[in-house]
């Protein structure tokens, strides 16, 4: 904001010129739907548009274990966006942010709370399905199998492996058992990679 005085014989006037700027941050960003591989975001328009109409929104996502943000879409015109794909399971927790942009540039972001990419079926949904099944004489075994199939998740990652007893031809690799997320772990894949290579090869059968 710039002000300039203007003097007259009777009055002293001040003219105020507003410098155009990027918009302020969008408001009330929410994750309104979350599933194993996608999330639906909604938000409200920024409080200030910076003196120019908002042209688009920029949507980004970030795995909370990582520092870098990934661009989802830079051309969003509405106040909502479907974010996909996501990695499922309790190991993957995401935060999202949305930036408004006008012809003068992009403004500050509005950042969501962390959410876990998982199927939304919980106990409430199970009770609704159960009542529906009883009303229509659907065998309960089908309801239980359906709920288990929608609720179970893959196991979490093991801790960092420990390497011992190294020889010219072998080594002993050990690790702690991870959380199985409600289903017994059937086995493990062990892979190795040479330092100067990007290729991983499985070493167990």
Automatic annotation (TrEMBL):
The stretch of residues making up the signal peptide is: none
Q: Which Gene3D superfamilies match?
A: Immunoglobulins (2.60.40.10)
Which keywords accompany this UniProt record?
Answer: Immunoglobulin domain, Membrane, Transmembrane, Transmembrane helix
Chain ranges of the Fibronectin type-III domain: 22-120, 157-205
Q: Which organism is it from?
A: Astatotilapia calliptera
Q: What is this protein called?
A: Fibronectin type-III domain-containing protein
Q: Where are the transmembrane segments?
A: 121-146
Q: Which PANTHER family match?
A: FIBRONECTIN TYPE-III DOMAIN-CONTAINING PROTEIN, MICROFIBRIL-ASSOCIATED GLYCOPROTEIN 3
| CDD domains tied to this protein | FN3
Q: Has the keyword Transmembrane been applied to this entry?
A: yes
Write down the SUPFAM superfamilies for this protein, in alphabetical order: Fibronectin type III
